[in-house]
Amino acid sequence: MSNLENFVVEASEAINFKLIRNRGDVNKLDDIFKPEMTHQSFGDSESIFGYRDLQINVYYSAGPLDIYYDKKYSKRVDDLSNNQGLKADNVDVITEVFSEGYYTNLDEFLDVMEKKEKTFAPMGERIHEFKTDDNRTFEIYLCESSTPNFQKYYTRLESFIFWYIDASSRIEHDEKWRFFVVFEKYKNEAGEDRYASVGYSSVYLYFCYPDKIRPRIAQFIILPPFQRKGIGSELLMTIYKHFQAKDNVCDITVEDASEDFQRLRNINDAKLLKNLDSFSPENLKNGFNTKMAQEAKDKFKINAKQSRIIYEILRLGITNTSNKNEYKAYRLEVKKRLNMNYLKEKRDLNRVISRGFKITADKKLSLPSTEENIESLEGMYRETEDYYRQVLEKV
């Protein structure tokens, strides 16, 4: 059978997400947003086989996030007379992430949406309110797993992570989870207050010996229609302020941070630490030290590993790269950290050899030579400096 490529589509192109506030939103095209990744439903190829003109529509009611699901296509490979036994992929696999169920009748979905939107309100404790540059109002609420009506709502909100957070999975609720949920407060066509879901972060409270806790940010997502408005920064700083005020908090950590989140974190942390005495320009030139790490931890609950990164970013900002000696001193300082893993592996290997154990050829080859490591280290440094400059532009 020819032209099979006409029956293959990128999953991210076929899927349309939309947040519905009123019936008129259904026909709008400018508020559709797409998934960033689809491999958790459609495999590493992130493609769907067997359909022409495939459209997968997933609509969420803006507040309570009830879901409408629909698929459309002009032709399916199964229905061709000469399909040679080929079968179309199961598109409905997408519904596996909708654990609270979904609607397939649009009118029924819209009727339920209109009914629920009248009574829907954020759950938990409101801990922050702010306005964006376009004068829209947002509120952040703190919830726990035991917060009334929260878990069912959160299951729907959490379904977004499969399309925007790599290797994501649902959490198992217990009393150590904290959830910071962002809502937009807006007026409907009748001038009545309504709430739209915007994003959230989940934080787990780990034990920190001997008598403290160590909050770890696990999931962090702002939905695409609300991005690039400063909402992510407001959410992160709200989490910081909440835990900074608690004496039993050791420091705040992050679980497997994505590149986008780490950039957001670095920008906000740099804005905080640049005002501390130990991070003053004259102290930055003297190198990273325990006083810096301690002050960052005491004032903002920023852990030592993260404060070291911020030190490097801020030091680059005050380094005269035209001064050969000054620039060299900075590069060596950064490379010293970047080279730590290589030096550790080399020490471990030498320790094993010194104790008389035999090392396989594969193990020896897995460790780069000194020359290879120097070349690799220079490449890593260049990438790191370029990245730091991007962060500094925002700071």
TrEMBL record:
Signal peptide: none annotated. The active site is at E255. Its EC number is 2.3.1.48. GO terms for molecular function: histone acetyltransferase activity; histone binding. It is an enzyme of class 2 (transferase). The record marks W177 as: Interaction with histone H4 N-terminus. Keywords: Acyltransferase, Nucleus, Transferase. GO terms for biological process: DNA repair; subtelomeric heterochromatin formation. This is Histone acetyltransferase type B catalytic subunit. It comes from Polypedilum vanderplanki (Sleeping chironomid midge).
